[in-house]
Specification:
InterPro entries: AAA+_ATPase, ABC_transporter-like_ATP-bd, ABC_transporter-like_CS, ABC_transpr_TagH-like, Bact_Polysacc_Export_ATP-bd, P-loop_NTPase. This protein is an alpha/beta fold. Helix content is 36%, strand content 24%.
């Protein structure tokens, strides 16, 4: 008889519950199934539709105070997962539950390139539901966090991508959202901004917030996150302490870079086998539990 693990009840209501979520896309392909080859065949060929599995069924529970870094190769499904959490797209299977509306960095703050940064601070904050009085109270802290100084009075079209990202982060983080999603916004190469944003993320967690961070900067994940997950080819492979997850992911990518595909596949398989999968169950009261 196989022993089953006891169900672990969460002490507090979770911020985000990802329940057996999967995502598929139907996209055209130029790959031929029949007909002539060569350039002539390519030009005359009608596009076929194929199904791409962006995310395979996965479950994840984020609690208040979590700062979760999401790592993985390009095309692994990281941004798709973020779009599912914030409600930009609906999953093909499963469901996502959130205790409040997630704020996606750079999405809720709809900024206008032709306007100065200070005007965009007002527009972005209004778009996120702040009143004029609240904007006045938080304006100085937003500018300070962005580090733009006098550049805040220049048109946003004159900003570098890093400057624009810092302003978007400062605006999004100004409302103390319960759930904040950040996609590559902190990779600006600015050490001072990294210190300020790390401090702000700590404040968000202390205020019962939850942060999801997608970043190719593994140092950022280790420094700013309390937890990390590794996604590869749509599969959730690891969920644990950032240092452990980052180390395994680095070993995996190092073997791939050297052409050691068999060794890399072994690391991937071992990580997947060691993962304790989350299963969301219904309570008799209708509330959900995780194990």
């Amino acid at each position: 008889m196989v022993a089953t693990e006891p169900v672990q009840y969460l002490q507090e209501p979770p911020s985000v519950v990802i329940d057996r979520v999967s995502m598929q896309f139907r996209v055209p392909t130029s790959e031929a199934t029949e007909g002539p080859g060569g350039l002539r065949g390519l030009l005359r060929r009608r596009a076929n539709m194929v199904t791409v599995n962006a995310l395979n069924p996965m479950s994840l529970v984020a609690e208040r105070g979590d700062s979760i870094g999401i790592v993985g190769r390009n095309g692994s499904g990281k941004s798709t997962l973020m779009k599912l959490i914030c409600g930009q797209i609906s999953p093909t299977g499963g469901a996502v539950y959130a205790s409040s509306t997630p704020v996606m960095l750079g999405v809720n703050a709809a900024l206008v390139p032709e306007l100065p940064g200070d005007h965009n601070v007002v527009l972005g904050c209004l778009a996120m539901g702040l009143s004029r009085e609240e904007i006045n109270e938080r304006y100085e802290s937003i500018v300070e966090l962005s580090g733009l100084e006098k550049a805040i009075h220049l048109p946003m079209r004159s900003y570098s991508s890093g400057m624009a990202s810092r302003l978007r982060f400062a605006i999004a983080a100004s409302i103390d959202p319960e759930i904040l999603l950040i996609d590559e916004a902190l990779n600006t190469g600015d050490a001072q901004f990294a210190d300020r944003s790390k401090k702000r993320m700590a404040e968000l967690r202390e205020n019962a917030g939850c942060v999801f961070l997608v970043s190719h900067s593994l140092g950022t994940v280790k420094d700013m996150c309390t937890r990390a997950v590794w996604i590869d080819k749509g599969d959730l492979l690891m969920d644990g302490h950032p240092k452990d997850v980052v180390k395994t992911y680095q070993d995996f990518t190092r073997h791939l870079t050297k052409g050691n595909n068999i060794s890399a596949a072994k690391i991937r398989d071992e990580a997947a086998a060691a993962l304790t999968a989350t299963q969301v169950l219904e309570r008799t009261t209708g509330r959900r539990r995780a194990r």
